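Homework help board

Subject: predicted structure for assignment chain

Our instructor gave us this sequence and asked us to write out the predicted structure in token form, then describe one feature. I got the tokens but I'm not sure how to describe them. Can anyone check?
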Amino acid sequence: MEREKTCCFTGHRADKLPWGGDESAPACLTLKRAIADVLASLYADGCRHFICGMATGSDIYCGEAVVALREEHPEVTLEAAIPYAGQEKRWPVLWQRRYFRLAEECDKLTVLHRAYTPDCMMDRNRYMVDASSVLVAIYNGTPGGTRNTMLYAMRQGVQIIELEVARSAK
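My token output:
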């Protein structure tokens, strides 16, 4: 796929989002609308391939939004960038179901490591950024993988579209 027509995502996992598991919370619904709006805008700008890191929370929200976009625009493709085989095995069952449902919708599955390694998450993030011209970041201002991915994207000259969320009350 052409880098100029590719977008990837980074963002916080479900436990770092302020609504926890309550996706009916107004802040979550607002974020999901913002994701859909950004995807529509990116599509209008020529983006056709999207890469999802397949983690709980932000990644899966974005991947599901790409699937919805593809209903209107069948030429849209979705790639799962999986940091290691079996990443979902320790997740709650509901997240596992969403993961597998989303994986079935993907046009391509890229598994970066056979098993967990200390660097596998960042390897996945670098892979996505290196293949993309745009990074959509769901970010609450805290240190961690999302910030590191954004910093890497900046160094690579990748456009960043930041969707801010409040910090979790935890």
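Reply (TA_rk): Your tokens look well-formed. For the description, you could write something like this. The chain has a mean pLDDT of 95. That's the kind of observation they're looking for.
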